[in-house]
Structure formats: structure tokens, C-alpha cells
Amino acid sequence: MNNTLRPMLSRFQSVYRLEISSRAVYIKHGNPPQGFVTAVADVARLHGIDSGLIECLGRGSSARLRFSRGFPERGRQAIRNVWTPPNTPPPRGGRRARG
After folding, report:
1. Per-domain residue ranges for the chain?
2. The pLDDT value given to residue 63
3. pLDDT of residue 98
4. What DSSP letter does each residue of the chain carry, written as one string?
5. What is the pLDDT of residues 36-76, one digit of tens each?
6. What's residue 43's pLDDT?
7. pLDDT for 7-42, tens place per residue?
8. How far, in Å, CA of 99 to CA of 90, rounded?
9. How far is CA 18 from the centre of its chain?
10. pTM of whole model > 0.85?
11. Which end of the chain has fewer CB within 10 Å, C or N?
């Protein structure tokens, strides 16, 4: 795991991870929506972000974005504005009670 992101307990699994460099946005893990990757590249160019990591953790309504430490707050908010959490079916619960 990269040292720029704080380690977290396994409660939230990594859905995808993006790395921003001065040249482009690279997909390091998972399958993010292509529109989101394009939007991240546009935001990085507009705000002058040359490096950083973005990771989507969790599933469905409990998904969240995590940014590397040096990521500017204005860039974070702009990326959150274009992000749509991944859609997954809700948990199905356990065994049905019989009685």
C-alpha cells in the first residue's frame, strides 16, 4: 500500500484508485467510470494539480472518496461535485426467521 494514503481498517474495500501525474490520470486499481476519469483530468488541469491519489472506498451508498495528503481542498470539492457513487444492490440480510 502506498504511504501517502493513511491505512484504514478493512471495513471499507477499495473499489478503484486513480493516480494524478503532471501528464495524465492513471487507473491504478479497479474499473472507475470513464466519464469520472475524464472529469478528474479536467479538474486537475483547471486547478493546477500535478500529483496526487484518489481512492474510492466502500460500496453503494456507503462509498466515499479518499485523497492523498497534499491534495488541495478546492480540487477535492470539485472532484466530489463530479463524482457519482457506484451503484450496487443492497445487502440481502441473513437467514429468514421462521416460526
Report:
1. 14-82
2. 85
3. 63
4. --TTSPP--TTS-EEEEEEE-SS-EEEEES---HHHHHHHHHHHHHHT--SEEEEEESSGGG-EEEE-TT--HHHHHHHHHH--PPP-PPP--SPPP--
5. 999 999 999 999 999 999 999 887 668 899 999 989 999 99
6. 94
7. 545 567 888 999 999 889 999 999 999 999 999 999
8. 25
9. 7
10. no
11. C
* Residue 65: Cβ-neighbour burial (10 angstroms; 0-12, 13-18, 19+): middle
Find all residues with CB under 8 Å of 81, minimum gap 6, and list them: none
Residue that the C-alpha cell 470539492 belongs to:
77
Contacts with 91 (C-beta within 8 Å, 6 or more apart), sequence order: none
Residue with cell 490520470: 25
Q: Alpha-carbon distance 26 to 76, whole Å?
A: 17
Q: What is the DSSP string of 66-90?
A: EE-TT--HHHHHHHHHH--PPP-PP
